[in-house]
């Protein structure tokens, strides 16, 4: 388990970090990095990129995704359904597959429309948002600029947004001040341990079932669905309320 490296890497101002899911994301990131480091401007930067050793399908790159991959987020797919509660799932790295499966379950079994996004870098998104926040503060006489994360996710305060990563919750939570809507982060806080991927993801509460339950729970807490639906899902997916917090285990 490596739950902290992206947080530590973010303490180095000229370290550019990414946690990609797909091969095409890696290709876009590396190409951009080569251009920035060895191109005409030769920026004084270096990269930290976490890649995976898990086998899963590699789809074609969505049209026009390059900008979002480099900036840190882009929409991969919309799972259509009858009920549009403005649910958005954010997945990163290997956990993106868990989020994708959760989106499919929410759509097919609960008739909830879900937009799913690949977040290649919470660090880059946060840095950009912080830079614009400072720029807006120092230029009160000008029209405020909008952070990229808000441009992509929108400004609807009614949205239900769930992030799931293979890293500590603080990695995605750093972006919370710049996200409009009800934001909930799932992550792998706690001591590292060895086990199967399925067991580790279940233990750290970032697997498909927990993402589904968390989404339903957030919908219930915000009055979108009956709390009974979330409680039934809790039993169905064997979510143990008495289980020790992974951070303290």
From TrEMBL:
Residues 2-59 form the Pyruvate dehydrogenase E1 component middle domain. The keyword Hydrolase does not apply. Residues 72-207 form the Transketolase-like C-terminal domain. Keywords: Pyruvate. The keyword Thylakoid does not apply. SUPFAM superfamilies: Thiamin diphosphate-binding fold (THDP-binding), TK C-terminal domain-like. InterPro entries: PDH/Transketolase, PDH_E1_M, THDP-binding, Transketo_C/PFOR_II, Transketolase-like_C_2. This is Pyruvate dehydrogenase (Acetyl-transferring), homodimeric type. The lineage of its organism: Bacteria, Pseudomonadati, Campylobacterota, Epsilonproteobacteria, Campylobacterales.
